Amino acid sequence: MQLKKPPKPPKQTAGPLGLKKIRRAPIQKTKAAQSKNIKTKSEKTNPPAGTDRTLLQKLANQKQAIETLQAGEEKFRRLFEQSNDAIIIHQGYRIIEVNTRACEMLGYSKENLLAMTVLDLTAAQNRSLVDQRVRSASQAETPLVFETQWKKADGQTIDIELSTRALDAENNIIQGIGRDITTRKQAEARLKRQATQASFLSQVARRISNELNLNDLLTAIVKAIYETFGYYSIALLLMDETGKS
Length: 245
Fold this sequence. Notes:
Number of strands: 7
CATH superfamily of the domain at 79-180: PAS domain
CATH architecture of the domain at 79-180: 2-Layer Sandwich
Strand content: 15-25%
Structural class: alpha+beta
CATH topology of the domain at 79-180: Beta-Lactamase
Distance between the termini: 184 Å
Shape: rod-shaped
Largest sheet: 5 strands, antiparallel
């Protein structure tokens, strides 16, 4: 009977400490795998093309929007402070901003006005009207213009033409622009008084020419004075050519 030879063991080499180790062929990655690995790392570290440009453009647009907003605010502030009319902004009647002209017109400091309400500035006889107009302004699409009176710090009242509109209807922020029309109202009153006097003199002259009885004439004059001026007590003096009554 013939015995088979056992298979040869793998070739062994001595290690640095005399230990034997088996030689193994190094495992190498294929070029395709290496390329895939490099591409994956590149995608993780480098953003897609155009990302930087888009971000820079977005930042530039934001900067321009902020600058435009600031320029608009500065322009509004200049117009606000340089206005010849008093400008008062209030929220729920509480004054939250005023311009320089409002302080000059009313004789209050800005700090004093910011501690007041618009009704505090309004003459008592006009408060109901102002309250009604303020409520209407929050719903109106166009400014509401009406006449009222404001009280100055020294107690005097001035005639005001007031234009009100809502800046923020949801938060009840209202802007009022007041123009002092006291001089105009005084001129109108003077013209009205002169017209009344002229009409009265015309009535008296007409009745003098028609009345021959002195007592009837005096009665007609007293009646005309009462109807024209509303006086309840009237005294008439008759004087001769020497000025004696």
